[in-house]
Design brief:
Blueprint: H1 11-26, H2 47-56, H3 59-68, H4 74-84, H5 101-115, H6 117-120, H7 126-136, H8 150-162, H9 169-180, E1 183-185, E2 188-189, H10 202-218, H11 223-240, H12 265-272, H13 282-297, H14 346-349, E3 361-364, E4 369-373, E5 387-391, E6 407-409, E7 432-435, E8 441-442, E9 449-453, E10 456-464, E11 467-476, E12 479-488, E13 492-497, E14 501-502, E15 512-514, E16 519-524, E17 527-533, E18 539-544, E19 556-565, E20 568-579, E21 591-595, E22 598-602, E23 608-612
Antiparallel strand pairs: 1-2, 3-4, 4-5, 5-6, 7-8, 7-13, 9-10, 10-11, 11-12, 12-20, 13-19, 14-19, 15-16, 16-17, 17-20, 18-19, 21-22, 22-23
Organism: Candidatus Halobonum tyrrellensis G22
Domain DUF2264: 10-354, 386-583
Protein name: DUF2264 domain-containing protein
């Protein structure tokens, strides 16, 4: 059940959407107001922290709403704040030690104190205020993860400072200095030190968003730092626009994707932080923001009770992380920060503008990506557009499939590994999966060497001693090509997958599987997906993926090439394409050849697209 009936075309409709999103949670609020437990699933942290999430995360929408409009349930919120910070109350949130999840949720309270003190601070008694301060200031004594978590300390102290409560401003500045050390230039941060931090959605919806919040809330006191945060965010916006398609979809990549329309939060934060990029109008910024939120609210992301579910486009725990509690998805409400702005701000006065013209292919070496727009059909039908990213691996403990595939698609998503072993169970779409025994397959967990050279990406993977795989990726729209040089001292079993495809319609026979020659192709009402073997020797097949492992669709198939490599050195390659509107494989498929010790990829008219040599770095 979708509780949101607003079209988000006007500010008042956006305000109503916040209320409609939060109200289903009220049935699950504890008697004291401090805890929310909508379902029985859990996360790796204790239940009290998960239930605190249910109290705090809706504040990301409720607080901006409350700056200029009424929520209607502030008494419940204040009761929760009072009881959750009272050690003598049954609903006390408890102490927050080193690396506690509770520090994450403190940030929303800190922002609430700064933006809506008349709602969350002024009505409290002196004793209630003191207990709130005592609970929040635990963040100043605890060790926090050396990444975006340091911003939680910043947000808490900004809020306490705003209401004249005791706080640690020196520690806040030290945390900000550390956060700025993660900056890499031209708008790019890593989420932590360069040799440890990933480049993913935590850059826009955390690193930049909190920096813009700081600029908005404390910019008068720290103008130079505030200006740095604004200029960096504006620079990043000119890159991040390439992650969104014309209809508002964003490329799914990395962890925490259950936060869904938090993808739009960066665009709203640009307005709150007054950081409009020179290359984008306010109408284009608002369009990017609104289309993403609107697209999400039109998807089956809700439970029957109107709650945001854990999952991505539909409810599934298989794609979640160990820290995703039933309340975690409400971080999505960070998208509503623009409601803290007055109605006459340029963001709200601007009409939504379409996505600006973008190149078909854009390299982003800072992210290890090449962004590709395969374009609409001749009639300009956006339903035929396909936005995807070619990618080099990043190391992460939060699921290798979320960081190490060759390709990530806004239209077709990606899949995680099955719970069961065996062929087709390793999340091999967009990847090369290898096995020593033909049963336990694995995709890359780490890469020893990666590079982005123009629009060509290279990587090296060494899954076992004596086994090395060097891969070259390059676009040739609507195709992309993959070339692998496999060196092995033992027998390897391999399967390489194309884009996953929604198999809805198979019960009515509305599908085609073709596995002839060296090509595997699947066609369903959702579109067509194919993979063609460049050098031959591999068996084409269409694999039915385990249900609920794909982010976008519960049931998918993956066109796949399967082969076995004996000890030695092997060249192998594939051309891959998918379209949401095509009836058959697209034209213009590249060709492959071996020239001495190099592999060569050519366009159909004989132009060299890629030359892969083992001596390349």
């Amino acid at each position: 059940m979708n509780p949101v009936e607003s079209s988000l075309r006007t500010r008042s409709e956006v305000e109503r959407a916040v209320v409609e999103l939060v109200e289903p949670l009220l049935a699950h609020v504890s008697p004291g107001g401090a805890r929310v437990r909508p379902t029985a699933t859990g996360a790796h942290f204790p239940d009290v922290a998960a239930e605190l999430e249910g109290f705090a995360r809706p504040l990301w929408g409720v607080v901006p709403l409350g700056v200029h409009a009424d929520f209607g349930h502030w008494e419940t919120v204040r009761a929760g704040l009072v009881h959750g910070t009272d050690p003598s109350h049954d609903e006390y949130w408890g102490t927050a030690g080193d690396y506690s999840q509770k520090h994450v949720e403190m940030a929303a309270v800190g922002v609430g104190l700064a933006l809506t003190p008349e709602r969350l601070w002024e009505p409290l008694s002196a004793n209630e205020r003191e207990r709130l301060v005592a609970w929040l200031t635990q963040v100043n004594d605890a060790d926090l993860h050396d990444n975006n978590w340091l911003f939680f300390r910043v947000m808490v102290n900004v809020g306490l400072r705003a209401v004249g409560a005791r706080h640690d401003w020196e520690g806040t500045q030290e945390s900000l200095d550390r956060l700025e050390s993660f900056y890499r230039g031209d708008g790019w941060y890593t989420d932590g030190p360069a040799d440890e931090g990933a480049v993913d959605y935590y850059l826009p919806w955390a690193m930049h968003l909190y920096g813009l919040l700081y600029a908005h809330l404390a910019g008068d006191e720290d103008p130079e730092r505030a200006e740095r945060f604004r200029s960096r965010a504006a620079a990043f916006a000119t890159h991040h626009v390439d992650w969104f398609d014309d209809e508002g979809r964003a490329i799914p990549y990395g962890r925490s994707l259950t936060y869904r329309f938090a993808q739009a939060a960066f665009w709203g934060a640009l307005a709150l932080g007054d950081a409009k990029p020179d290359a984008l109008s306010w109408g284009e910024v608002r369009g990017l923001w609104a289309r993403n939120v609107r697209w999400w609210l039109d998807q089956p992301v809700f439970t029957d009770g109107g709650l945001l579910s854990v999952g991505y486009r539909y409810p599934t725990l298989k794609t979640s992380e160990s820290y995703n509690s039933p309340n975690s998805p409400y971080w999505a409400l960070k998208a509503f920060l623009p409601l803290a702005l007055p109605a006459d701000h340029a963001f709200w006065r601007a009409d939504e503008a379409p996505l600006p013209d973008r190149p078909d292919v854009t390299a982003q070496p800072e992210a290890g990506k090449v962004l590709c727009r395969s374009g609409s059909d001749e009639g300009g039908d956006a339903d035929h557009d396909h936005l995807f990213a070619l990618s080099v691996p990043q190391e992460s403990v939060h699921g290798r499939e979320k960081y190490t595939k060759f390709a990530y698609s806004a239209r077709f998503g990606f899949s995680v590994a099955s719970r069961r072993p065996g062929p087709g169970r390793a999340g091999h779409d967009g990847a090369l999966a290898l096995s020593l025994d033909g049963e336990r397959y694995a995709t890359p967990a780490t890469a020893t060497d990666t590079a982005v050279d123009g629009t060509t990406l290279t990587t090296r993977w060494e899954p076992w001693d004596g086994v090395s795989v060097r891969t070259w990726l390059a676009p040739h729209l609507p195709w992309h090509v993959r070339v692998h040089r496999v060196e092995t001292d033992r027998t390897l079993h391999a399967e390489e997958g194309g884009f996953p495809l929604d198999r809805t319609g198979d019960d009515e026979g509305a599908y085609t599987h073709r596995t002839e020659g060296a090509t595997a192709l699947a066609r369903y009402p959702a579109g067509v997906s194919c993979i063609a073997d460049g050098f031959g020797g591999r068996e084409p097949t269409v694999v039915a993926a385990e249900p609920n492992t794909n982010l976008l669709h519960p049931r998918t198939v993956v066109p796949t090439l399967r082969g076995t490599y004996q000890p030695g050195t092997h060249w192998t390659a594939a051309a891959v394409a998918a379209s949401p509107g095509a009836e058959a494989a697209p034209d213009g498929r590249p060709t492959f050849a071996v020239d001495g010790d190099a592999a060569v990829v050519e366009t159909p008219d004989g132009e060299t697209l890629l030359r892969c040599s083992p001596s390349d770095r």
